[in-house]
Amino acid sequence: MNQHTVIPPADVGLAIRPWQHDIHACFTAAGITHVPFVPDAGHKGLIKLCEADPSITTTVLTTEEEGIALATGLWLGGRRIVMLMQSSGVGNCVNLFSLLENCRAPFVALVTMRGEFAEFNPWQIPMGKRTGAVLELMGFDVYRADDAGAVGDTVRGAIDHAFFSRRAVAVLLGQRLIGRKDWSK
Amino acid sequence: MTIERRRAVADLLAERGDMLLVAGLGSPVYDVFAAGDHDLNFYNWGAMGSAAMIGLGLALAQPDRPVVVITGDGEMLMGIGAFATIAQHRPANLSIIILDNGQYAETGMQPTATSFGVDLAAVATACGLPDVVTLQSNNEVAALHTRIRARGGLTIAVLKIAPGDQPHTIPLRDGVEIANRFIRHAATAL
């Protein structure tokens, strides 16, 4: 079903941060079977882990809006998903969030932040500055992780919160956590 | 020669068995309800552009059941990237039926891009979807009905329907009730 090339975990280990392994372990423990994403450099290692995991189906989306709808369909069909996206994608989704609110559909997005710390590209700032506020405005419960050691627990809590209480939850993964983008290459 | 939308939808939903159905906002919601309410109808009253992707999610979650999306050309155009995303998976149990009259009926019959020449079937084909058909007449609907029920491969069907509005037959509107009823009947609770 998954059309992506399967990469053996041994071959992807070096590029992956410990906190990304922690997130992947949360997915395994929580029975997450699908991970749709619009890629971000901050999610690169986690995407590799998910693609290499035979128990997870990944889907690369043309826009984050599709992930909201895909998540709703998978939930109606009895599956648990977590979506990966970057902060700019939150703005793409605003009306689609109405689907989650109207159906009280559980949903988890892990949002890598741009535009908030040592940002080289000013075009990232307008959406990055308002990502949390937009999510709050649209009814999300918004968590945040800036410390690598706290990521696993935060994501675990977000998944439980979403699926136990049928809530839309976003975890903002701070730009300081992800680190500066190297623009010299 | 064009297709009568209400008759076509009723024919496609006859003897539906365990079919999971997503109806896209506007007239397709009314068409589906006019054919008879069902616990496995997901009436998508909003979130324009999402119907096909909800269908993909259902099809991936429930590969042994036929999943049918019935939506309009305007709704499909808003989420047209879904063709590219669905092509990654091509679930054999998913059918997307697009009722194409080239009009936004809900808002006063303004023309959609298909009336200016956009060919949704050609777009789907260009995105890599293998079985795409365009139907022009009522007597082609029976073959599509058979094909959907067989779950023999991802199907995209563009039905060229007659222009004009239909009586608004109004089903459940509460999203929680629609979703809970669907989940209870499909026995897919998490």
Give a structural overview.
The complex is a heterodimer of chains A (185) and B (190). In chain A, the strands form 2 sheets. Chain A has a 4-stranded parallel sheet, with helices on both faces. A two-stranded parallel sheet of chain A has the order 1-2. In chain A, helix 2 (18-30) crosses helix 3 and helix 2 packs parallel to helix 8. Chain A has 9 helices and 6 strands. Chain A starts with 8 loop residues before the first helix and ends in a 7-residue tail after the last helix. Chain A has helices at residues 9-12, 18-30, 44-51, 64-76, 87-92, 97-103, 125-137, 151-165, 175-178; strands at 34-37, 57-60, 83-86, 107-112, 141-145, 168-173. Chain A is an alpha/beta fold and 185 residues long. Chain B is of the alpha/beta class and 190 residues long. Chain B has 8 helices and 8 strands, in the order H-E-H-E-H-E-H-H-E-E-E-H-E-H-E-H. Chain B has helices at residues 5-12, 27-34, 51-61, 73-78, 82-86, 120-126, 141-150, 175-186, and strands spanning 20-23, 41-43, 67-72, 94-100, 103-104, 110-111, 131-135, 155-160. Chain B has a 6-stranded parallel sheet, with helices on both faces. Chain B has a two-stranded antiparallel ribbon with strand order 5-6. Classes of the chains: A alpha/beta (185), B alpha/beta (190). At the A-B interface, strand 2, helix 4 and helix 6 of A face helix 3, helix 5 and helix 8 of B.
What is the N-to-C succession of helices and strands of chain B? HEHEHEHHEEEHEHEH
What share of residues of chain B is helical?
A: 25-40%
Main sheet attributes: strand count, strand direction, barrel closure of chain B: 6 strands, parallel
Can you tell me the residue ranges of chain A where pLDDT is under 50 for at least 5 consecutive residues?
9-13
What order do the SSEs of chain A take from the amino end to the carboxyl end, as H and E?
HHEHEHEHHEHEHEH
How large is the count of helical segments of chain A?
A: 9
Which geometry of chain A do the CA atoms define? globular
Overall SS class of chain A: alpha/beta
Q: How many E strands of chain A?
A: 6
Terminal-residue CA separation of chain A: 36 Å
> Which oligomeric state applies?
heterodimer
Q: Please state roughly what percent of the residues of chain A sit in beta strands, choosing from under 5%, 5-15%, 15-25%, 25-35%, 35-45% or over 45%.
A: 15-25%
* Residue windows where pLDDT falls under 50 for at least 5 positions of chain B: none
- Terminus-to-terminus distance of chain B: 46 Å
The radius of gyration of chain A is 15 Å
What number is the mean pLDDT of chain B?
96
Strand content of chain B: 15-25%
Helix content of chain A: 40-55%
Shape of chain B: globular
